[in-house]
């Protein structure tokens, strides 16, 4: 099959929104080159989070971001270019910087499609315990408590490098003590479900509205034997789900978190934790307000660059 790549030059804060636009228009995979991913890497043997990489040794952008979507031959790409440009431009209505919004297309052959991801992804220690490892890399843990998450970033929606994903990985590391029932909403690549399993969670259900994302999650779960029993399927947020989970985690845009808040409250046991990220600076106060209005108690809020992650809980006793 022949593929066409549509590349959007944008800002770091708009990466997830642009990725969504491309997949919504039919992209079967998304590649992200984000200067922000290298901002906190330090030259030398160790970085401040245990990175074992010299940033100068890896080709990367030095400003902004480029998001590339890969489209199959049955999609007429020339008609998409102005639509994508317009949708990216409208991100400013949501207080997201669209950046240059330069949209271009080029043909991609099968060999390049199969290997294009590999030069951009390397093992990365993302928390005290968790390291993201591309499935083609051979990597040996550097400490006894280090847990590996194998991913094939070729079709991933969340590879652990973006601040929103890191915030949720750190939050999971803080709240999981063992055997929790976890629901992963908007699972994308499945990285949060795999991390939860590595940290000791019990039953996990993972949902995404996008079939491509669900298939990507299934492939990545299969790369991690610890996550073999994770249930993954297509669902819009928590529509039609009635249960009592210990933890609900969602790394999605703030506008989508808003309708999820009451669903999460209903599907959490008293004392259960609600972990959310994907919240840009300007939307943080809105999400805090919606959580409080619903009855959640905010335990902790973390920030990484322009993104916020929140840990909240459902009170055991409702006043």
From TrEMBL:
Its EC number is 2.1.1.-. The keyword Hydrolase does not apply. InterPro entries: Ribosomal_L11_MeTrfase_PrmA, Ribosomal_PrmA_MeTrfase, SAM-dependent_MTases_sf. One of its GO terms (cellular component) is ribosome. It catalyses: L-lysyl-[protein] + 3 S-adenosyl-L-methionine = N(6),N(6),N(6)-trimethyl-L-lysyl-[protein] + 3 S-adenosyl-L-homocysteine + 3 H(+). SUPFAM superfamilies: S-adenosyl-L-methionine-dependent methyltransferases. GO terms for biological process: methylation. Belongs to the methyltransferase superfamily. PrmA family. This is Ribosomal protein L11 methyltransferase. It comes from Limosilactobacillus rudii. The lineage of its organism: Bacteria, Bacillati, Bacillota, Bacilli, Lactobacillales.
């Amino acid at each position: 099959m022949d593929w066409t790549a549509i590349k959007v030059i944008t800002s770091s804060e708009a990466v997830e929104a642009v990725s969504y636009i491309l997949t919504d228009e039919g992209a079967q995979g998304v590649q992200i080159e984000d200067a922000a991913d290298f901002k906190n890497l330090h030259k030398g043997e160790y970085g401040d989070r245990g990175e074992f990489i010299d940033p100068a040794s890896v080709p990367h952008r030095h400003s902004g971001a480029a998001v590339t979507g890969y489209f199959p031959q049955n999609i007429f790409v020339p008609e998409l270019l102005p639509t994508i440009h317009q949708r990216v431009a409208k991100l400013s209505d949501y207080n997201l910087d669209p950046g240059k919004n330069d949209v271009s297309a080029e043909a991609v052959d099968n060999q390049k499609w199969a290997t294009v991801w590999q030069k951009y992804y390397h093992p990365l220690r993302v928390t005290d315990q968790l390291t993201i490892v591309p499935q083609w890399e051979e990597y040996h843990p550097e400490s006894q408590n280090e847990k590996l998450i194998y991913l094939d970033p070729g079709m991933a929606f969340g590879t652990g490098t973006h601040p929103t994903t890191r915030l949720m990985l750190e939050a999971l590391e803080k709240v999981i003590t063992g055997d929790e029932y976890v629901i992963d909403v908007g699972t994308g690549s499945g990285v949060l479900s795999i991390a939860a399993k590595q940290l000791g969670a019990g039953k996990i259900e993972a949902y995404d509205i996008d079939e491509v994302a669900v298939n990507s999650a299934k492939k990545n779960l299969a790369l991690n034997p610890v996550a073999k029993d994770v249930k993954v399927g297509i669902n819009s947020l928590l529509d039609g789900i009635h249960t009592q989970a210990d933890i609900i985690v969602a790394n999605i845009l703030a506008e989508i978190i808003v309708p999820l808040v009451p669903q999460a409250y209903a599907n959490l046991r008293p004392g259960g934790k609600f972990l959310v990220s994907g919240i840009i600076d300007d939307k943080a106060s809105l999400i805090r307000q919606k959580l409080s209005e619903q009855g959640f108690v905010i335990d902790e809020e973390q920030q990484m660059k322009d993104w916020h992650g929140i840990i909240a809980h459902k009170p055991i006793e409702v006043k």
